[in-house]
């Protein structure tokens, strides 16, 4: 009997298919036929297109091959391609392709994939997402003709999301595709990292979102397989911990790490991020550890813990923001009997300011102030009172989107009925206003 699967749409659309024998469904569709189908499809009406797919592409209007000869970008996703086709058919049709999207086709044999790419000597980008490529292959060399061996290193960016490709196969593939720098392996269901026969230092960026790995020990193995990684994206996965001990050996070059929507749940995991020797950019949205805090608190608590991080959630951390965050952290842990190690580090660091405050008649060094922008509450924020009015204006300017000359600040000493006091002098330090928690600063646009 006929296996229908996704082909049954054709049955619904075309009465004539009913009389075709089951061979029609097993028919292979080559790369070139798919290409011709697709580009004639844009001119012909839909009915004709179906006849092309189920019948022979030779029926349609004469087709000028040279039309594809110069093409550098080919998008053939979802075209039903199963195979490369006759030898040299691709190289004579479209030899100049640099970017090729073959996502959502019916390629399930790597031999065919290699026959396609070994004909495209300029190929730099290849998308194979959503082809079912689950073969375990230890050695690709039997699939590659000697004369094609030189073509393969041209590929720089390789997308294998949602292909079920085993990591062992990826390793053997990379042994041939030595130019790949940017590799996407998301949605392949990996729950462990197998040993690799060699290291692949050319891979700079790896995306492996939505895997099934829970323990850092496995992730660490990735580092040994790809020692040149500068970017690792690993979001939406059940990772529960980060073990710091071997990080410098595992990820010596890593600068950018995305851990959004993982299951990290302790501050030790966060502190472990300090042990990556080069890490400066980390994304940590949607982790259970921080659920209980407001967005502002999340950011401040993370910044205070991570002196080496320059960008959090892709937003640059300004010097002033870090200072505020560290003060917030100290305040947050002040009454903690057993404060984290970082607490004493930060107290040591901000101690100078505290002594300076003592000299200044015990003025506070920070206060929780409510900001009111044109009579609307803006936010409540812990601010550093050792800064000048001008520097506060600069800070606020970012949030209200008005440059400092475009607004003025007025201090309201809540509890005294003296009204608003305009903060005229840019150089005046905030502590000289004797600000305290709960006071207000009004921002008036001019
Ligand atoms: C690769 O294919 C997938 C599936 O069609 C698509 O979502 C993705 O945007 C493609 N990637 C690129 C960079 O073209
Ligand atoms: C993964 O691919 C399958 C088909 O192979 C598709 O049904 C599924 O929606 C894809 N998953 C995602 C998240 O894109
Ligand atoms: C799959 O790869 C593309 C690159 O085309 C990437 O943008 C996308 O986020 C990936 N999908 C997942 C789930 O990571
Ligand atoms: C995850 O991190 C990226 C930064 O790389 C950010 O742009 C994105 O919005 C985050 N996504 C979620 C779902 O948190
Ligand atoms: C990440 O950044 C976004 C916007 O930049 C913010 O809403 C979110 O609170 C931040 N999360 C953390 C943990 O810093």
UniProtKB/TrEMBL annotation:
Keyword Nucleus: no
Keywords: Leucine-rich repeat, Repeat, Signal
InterPro entries: LRR_dom_sf (IPR032675), Ubiquitin-like_domsf (IPR029071)
Coiled-coil residue windows: none
SUPFAM superfamilies: L domain-like, Ubiquitin-like
Pfam families given in the database record: LRR_9
Signal peptide: 1-24
Protein name (Swiss-Prot/TrEMBL): Tubulin-specific chaperone cofactor E-like protein
